[in-house]
Amino acid sequence: MSQHSLSISSSDLEHARRARWTFRPLLGIIAWASVGLAAIDTFIGLAFPYPDDPKTMPSRLQSFFEYGRSAEGSLQRRTRADRSQTAPITLSGWYQPLIASQPSGAAGKPAVTIYGGSHSVRLAHALVRVTDDLTWRSVAAPGASSNWSYGAFLRDKDGRKGSVAVVLTFNTNLLPAITSFSPTMWNNDNPMPYTGDRFVVRDGELKVIHPPYDSFEEYQRTLTNPAAWSRAVDFFARNDPLFDSISFRSNLLDHSALARLARRAYNTDRHKKIEHAVLDPVKFNEDSEAVQLARAIILKFAADVRAEGRIPIVFLVNDLGYSDVLFRAVEPALRASNVPYISSHQFISPNDVNGYLPDGHFTDANDDRLGKALDDLVRSQTAITLDKTRR
Asked: Are 342 and 376 in contact (CB under 8 A)?
């Protein structure tokens, strides 16, 4: 071997030796950081353990560090076969049985049946505060999107026989969810297992796809049967555009508080993208499936209710900070169907924080304004109907 070769080999060895010394501190930092993160993760798990009993309310910190758990993991943690032991939220919103509520002492009064979520319930309660001539009947689910509400309407024909008017609710914040079967797909901070019908527009007609389960008992049996649950998850993955495997499927990361927080950040970003694909505080996407579907549901709802001889009414909840974007998104359908409607932006500025409660609902005074608007609308439409009958 030549002296030149020996010189090169010695140089290479020295370079490699220096490289090892260069990377050793970095590897040490990474190792200590990993140990530190593992210690923090372990401490959080020990200091803020989530309650094992699904009916026990967690503390704020327990809830905070639970955010980001997969939807599947949350369902498994909350659900029990015994109704008396399962988390109360797992019992709400199911189509079977479809639960309607109404006030006592309402017998003999003409009723207004209202389908929707919490805003629709508050509207119903406001109605009887502003009039003694009408009563309400409410069919609602927590965080209900309009596809759930329309599916409930389709299942409730016998229940609303005593109603003179029927109200279907739409919310700005929930418009992107109108294409989804369940809050499990989009409400990752508080996944609720109830399901709703999924509607699609095909060849100009509104078609329905039913969920794989629509009662608590059927859901619970499916969840605890691995083969049945796998089929249900595959169904959602194929048919629900808001299904996301990272958000939905459980894995080992569910056991890490820091990993759950990272997943929550991912979910937050995903939700923003889903919403902005449909609308934002100043505009809406004309071509989005959600907007087209909302319009199709309004047209079909108006025709369905009129075929029953009742008054159809659309209730639009324009959420804080979104101006009248929802109204403008569905206005073509309102005009085409000539359906009576109440849009909250006509009475409450969507840009005035004083018109809303901290949880996003309207103040009681503003609910009463909307209740009065509903009373006036029913009275005027009833008069129109009676006048047409006399002719």
From this structure: no
